[in-house]
Amino acid sequence: MTEFGPLAMDFTGAGDGRERALALLLLSMADDEFVIGFSDSEWTGIGPILEEDVAISSLAQDELGHAQALYRLFVELVGDGRDADAVAYDRPPEGYLHARLLDHGRGDWAATIARRYLYETADAARLEALAETSFEPLRDLVAKIRREERYHLMHVETWLDRLAKAGGEPRRRLTAALEAMGPDAGTVLALLPGEPALLRHGILAEPFAAIESTWRARIDGAFGRLGLPALPPTRDPQTARTRHSETFRALHREFTMVRGSEVAASW
Amino acid sequence: MVTATPPIALGLVPGPEVRETAVRAALRTVHDPEIPTVSIVDIGLVHDVRIDADRIAVDLLPTFVACPALEVIRSTVADALSGFGRPVDVDFTFAVPWTTDRLTAKGRAGLLAAGIAPPSAPTDVRCPFCESARVVMDSAFGPTLCRSLFYCRDCRQPFEAFKPA
Asked: Which of A19, A85, A225, B74 is the most exposed place for a label (fewest CB within 10 A)?
């Protein structure tokens, strides 16, 4: 159990090294999608233009759906009696395993685009490394999710381009957001404690370090073309998915509010 | 729920014969809750139908993972098959990804009837009202996850197109 240290709190009953590593992978991915989905959903009703209001709401809905599907795989694997909603809503803030990049919260539109761009490109690299995963339910889900994420990438790449090339205030805001989030961007692909087991069992195609360097080469290319500052190395990679910000605690209070007031409520 | 019916017919009393064609015909009466002109069969949601002695199992493919209509579709399917007199299990699976290739000709016609352009590459989309090719995509994201927003420069109508997936 010590292999996972403080991250083990949610699935200590999940069998051998393979199952624990897989549980950690699924939960970290689910939490990523859940937290970015909730942050993005804060734009619903206040998007910069009507089409973007609809688009960001749609993107947020997609991410929450992906989170739900991943939480379901997690609860089937761990089998400790909790359902997907219990895992999504009934943990204290420090029990969430999303990447620190997503602790930055909604911010202004440029910050949302910066966060989405950094997350979506890193997530695409992670999904690519899972496309042939030996865990069949995840392979099926990843195939489906990747078909949807193409739209997400197209959307956010268009916006990155637009803000970067606009000059003036849009570009200033984008650059400021990228500078604030840059050191946390790589946290999405930071080493997970169960990586050796994931590789040994053919769950993950290559080490996170290799996935990250492929991703960084892609970002360097894009940022180079747009004259944006290069992405700095990851700050404190050891705590990439722990020690969450006050911004996340506020978001957590928000998204657990309904569940907290009526646990058995159904939609 | 139909699924809660106890399996009383379990090998003791032979139930009435259930033919797969009859089950599939019944599934044709279930429409997409957001596009009432298209059945779930023609939209390509039905992945598998299995008829066992003690139950009917239907596996469906979600168009988008987060589609909020899934629970409505699940209960409508269970209702539509309740007349066969045995428990119905409706499951969603990602065993094969739903793609727009799964739409039948009837499904495409049904979309047109609802004023929604059938899925195709953005450059091949035609206005569902006047068939003009002089259309432009306003946004890839429409009022539901599976639809995009377009505008027709000829008849000056905004319209929706089913997203290719």
From this structure: A225
B-chain residues near A85 (CB < 8 A): none
> Which of B94, B139, B140 lies nearest to residue A144, judging by beta carbons?
B94
Of the residues A68, A151, A152, A266, the best mutation for testing chain B's interface (the one with the most B CB atoms within 10 Å of its CB) is A151
Question: What ipTM did this prediction achieve?
Answer: 0.84
This prediction's pTM:
0.90
Q: Which residues contact B92 (CB under 8 A, 6 or more apart)?
A: B59, B60, B61, B62, B70, B74
Sheet with B88-92: strands ordered across: B46-51, B56-60, B88-92
Find which of A33, A53, A61 to mutate to test the B interface (most B CBs within 10 Å of its CB): A61
pLDDT for res A13: 56
The partner residue sitting opposite A69, judged by closest CB among B65, B138, B165, is: B65
- Please report which helix (H) or strand (E) contains residue B48, including its range: strand B46-51
Quote the minimal CA–CA distance from B108 to chain A in Å.
Answer: 21
Subunit contact A148:B165, Cβ cutoff 8 A:
yes
Which three-class secondary structure string do you get for A165-210? Answer: HHCHHHHHHHHHHHHHHHHHHHHHHCCCCCHHHHHHCCCCCCCHHH
CATH code assigned to A2-261: 1.20.1260.10
| Arithmetic mean of pLDDT, B37-66 | 95
Q: Please write the tens of the pLDDT for every residue from B119-159.
A: 988 889 999 999 999 999 999 999 888 899 999 999 999 99
Say whether pLDDT at A2 is over 60: no
Q: Which amino acid is at B34?
A: E
Residue A230's closest CA among A190, A167, A179, A154?
A179
Contact B94 A55 (CB under 8 A): no
Other C-beta atoms closer than 10 Å to the C-beta of A115 total: 27
pLDDT(A6) > 90: no
Whose CA is closest to A33, among A6, A1, A72?
A72
Please check the confidence at residue B12 and state whether its pLDDT lies above 60.
Answer: no
Give the model's pLDDT for residue A12. Answer: 54
Burial of A47 (0-12, 13-18, 19+ CB in 10 A): middle
Q: Which one of B62, B97, B141 has the shortest CB-CB distance to A55?
A: B141
Contacts of B99 in chain A (CB under 8 A): 147
CB A106 within 8 A of CB A43: yes
